[in-house]
Structures
1.
Amino acid sequence: MTTVLAIETSCDETAVAIVNNRQVCGSIIASQIPVHQQYGGVVPEVASRAHLETINDAIAQAMDQAQLGWDKIDGIAATCAPGLVGALLVGLTAAKTLAILHNKPFLGVHHLEGHIYATYLSEPTLDPPFLSLLVSGGHTSLIYVKECGRYESLGETRDDAAGEAFDKVARLLKLGYPGGPVIDKLAQTGNPQAFALPEGKVSLPGGGYHPYDGSFSGLKTAVLRLVQQLEKDGDPLPIEDISASFQATVAKALTKRAIACALDYGLDTIAVGGGVAANSGLRQHLQAAATANNLRVLFPPLKFCTDNAAMIACAAADHLSRGHISPLTLGVESRLSLSQVMKLYQ
């Protein structure tokens, strides 16, 4: 049974967690959303400074919550890529310091691998192979999970990530930041069929469309033109109907590609991760389609959909149990493909 303390500071959450294999012993998440709301998005320098101010208290609170001493911790981990470089450095430096101080193995963890492992926290029987649908503010991908550290990207968005599209549409509708939760709430009372919006197909050179890749920039532009036309006509904006139509379009597009990909590759389980995994529209559409196709779809608990350290600790515990350890010379990277995960370990 491997117990790991992990730190996650890739963007705008300062998170620390302690996980024993797939059991969460303690989890602290200090969100910076109130700090960044005034700017309408995450400001990297502001995020880094906020991590510095919060990290020590978060570590102390996680240790207190877990009621464990350092002698019970088998390894120290931190997200090292991808993410905001300054923000990542705060967590990585803290983790390395703890590893040296307490003479523990150190592990650098890929942020997206963490999102894959988020579902493991509530599904003790989940094991590869399966299909992972990662949908967040920075990433939208279909990943073939073969085993710990072995991943193959089968599809992705060619431009905006799903969460990014939610934020941009929310800005168009003057709903504030972050856009996902508020659009989801408004969509509950709107008509998802009020407006026909494009799902963002990606054309292939020889004709037809890519079965798994998608695009959200055209959808975002379609909402912009819709808003401009309604304002030009002097009509009040039906915010609820626009939100419902937009959300349903995103959910349908993601569902179609995920189901097709799982069936084509003979995978009977789809595990969803990332902040957009909390979206009620996506959960409803994907669950219904999976049931109709005799597939199993798994969502993490809502608290583990957005960035958190428990998912990082869970991934690190699996790597550590296999003898994977990172060198203390490991740095941070703003971009790193999931296919390169094993380069983080000796």
Note: The chain has a mean pLDDT of 96.
2.
Amino acid sequence: MIKKYKVPFIINYDFAEDHSTLCIWCKKENKKNIAHILSKSILISEHNKNKLFATVCENCNSFFGKNIEDWIFKYSPLNYWISKDNKGSIYLKDDRSLIYKQVFLWLKEYNEWFISTNIKGEQFPPQLIFKEDGEIICYNYADGKIQNTIFYFKNFADVIERKDFTTYLSDKLPFNFNPRIIIYDSKYIVVGRDKNDIKKILDCNFNYNEITTSTYLLKQKQHKELLVLYKWSVKKYLKFCAKISFEFLSLFKGPEFVLNDDFDGFRQFLFHDKKDDFTQIPFLSGEGLVKNRLTVNGWVSICDKVKISKSFQLPTFLLPEENKFSFSLVIYKVDSYLCASMKLFEIEVCNIILAQIYEPLGSIYYITYSPSDDCLCFYEGAGEGERIDKELLLVTNEDSAKLIN
């Protein structure tokens, strides 16, 4: 039987960081610098309560920036959720905001998909497209270099013979995507949905003199039909959520609490486990991300020292689905298990067991961020104090934790 409880919270802005000679991550006396708990990319403006000034060293802060956050904001859909102007639409920019993704853009006026690199000055590479009716069209962005483009493609037979080309195949490309050869950074790339598309190109007996040439223009910034193929790693995202949860925990409980040896397995996972999983997920304008889950369903234990009986059920907080919150996190303790449930943008709730620890937590902590009013709010579980209308629903029907290997 599912049990449900409502837990009241009160606002608490009295949290203050305690100084520590040791870094809360590496536990060494290294030089400290300012560490943002939530990346500055997620917040509209700076919030001092989002910073650790005296407990994270330069080396560890740099490690998270380069190995976790840099990847998350370059390759994953978080960049889209952060920068989108309207729900269901995305704007191509002249900056490098989409440089790390494959972008496929439908231009209605040409009745064709085009590949965009979104690199300023080289946004649309030349594309030799093989149509279903046998027509071959060489498209070049309006930069006056169409003849040079044809010259490049005349060398394609030699390129095939030398096997001096790469291929990009993905069944996530649109069903009506015509296979093509593109030239990028003086390299030839054959792009298609599968090996049949590659064979179609290689078996084609075409005469370069019969190729249709055309220049095309990007007439509008916003496009209703856009496909962006993002990379995704569940394990990278778990590390991202775990890092945020742990640093907020340090703010609430102080460095002495998180320097406990019981968190050493947790630290080991974040710093030394490099067996990340990678997949590719498509974003479609007007539809958003394809409905495949981005996080593990249920509880996740990221430390092999945490053992949970199969008969034991961990209760979980159901974080509010209010659209005004782009971030919410609740940290609490059940028996000896220190738990964190975090929701970011439209990604499903991530439930992580941070450690098995016997020191009492003393309270339940809850944080939200609303971009509409740029408000970062801190709440604490109410005892006999003043109740506020910020109740979370606690349920006890979750499965036992899964161990991420």
Note: The two ends are 31 Å apart (CA to CA).
3.
Amino acid sequence: MNRGNADGGRGGGVNLPVVRGHNEALVLDLLRAAGPVGLGRAGLAARTGLTPQAVSKITARLAAEGLVAEAGRDASTGGKPRTRLRLVPGARHAVGVHLDRDELRAVRVDLAGGVVAEWSGPLDFGAGPEVVLDAVVRAVARVADGAGAPARLLGVGVAAPGPLDWRGGVLGRVTGFPGWEGFPLREVLVGRLGVAVVVDKDTNAGVAAGGPAGDGAGSCVYLHVGTGLGAGLRLDGAVYRGARSGAGEFGHQVLLLDGPRCRCGGRGCLEVLCLEAVARGDLAGAARVLGEGAANLVALLDVDRVLLGGRVVAGAPEVFVRGVREALAARSLTADPPAVGLAPAGVAEGAAELVVGRLFGGG
């Protein structure tokens, strides 16, 4: 795999206020995974391969920045009790925004991925950039209030319908909204907000939403069913976007030749078949269609897990999990088909994780 296309999006001219060196990011990531219990310096040295002296210098710098604090002491074994260190979740925040075709949702999260503020409201994506940008700026202001000093806000992650160029944050020909093609969303928002901005597809944010709990680790696909249908791919632990940012256009695979017309211009696409079943109230049928598409994807990628999300799934989670699980079991070419479950967090949370994750060497 070309790792340049799955590096978590560290390119694109985004300069975050805090840029960690590799070793500092590694230490922070271990402390995030350890949670409130924390880890001792000796444990950090053993897990990173760094010398105890190097770990002491790194943790001292992180403590000076307010990112690390003491978590208590281990029981004495005859010598001086060793101090454990923990991440300070509230030391920094990030805002995540999900631009759906008819709704905007914004959240502010801490370094542990916890949501500390959120807001949602209606949105007309078809009204065009000026109206949508005004709505984004207002939403960010609402949830960012209380984040403290500006330096505590790492940036804003924006998840939008694809296709789009995640490197430059420029939208492509969004299905049903051709007027957005070529719009430099990231650049304009940086000017309006005055902070670092990351722009990515909603499905890529969805697959990034595992965050510090590791629920998005390994190889998995995230299938989003809402006003549209798409997939986010995490391969070998990294979000995979493709050479031209086009990976994950899952909804436009053709399942029925000469089937109903899809808004992309094709016929018999998975998206139109699934959403038509939803519209007529046949959720079990929609889940079967989704499962067949998922089986095609699993046969190609051989992933460990399939995660489901989006408002349609949220309305009937058991129906969709069961339908996709049954389709994968019926068509599996191996004895152990991938596990199927619900995504651990929403797209807005995943957009924030695309910002927060960079502090820990990922994204």
Note: The longest helix spans residues 283-301.
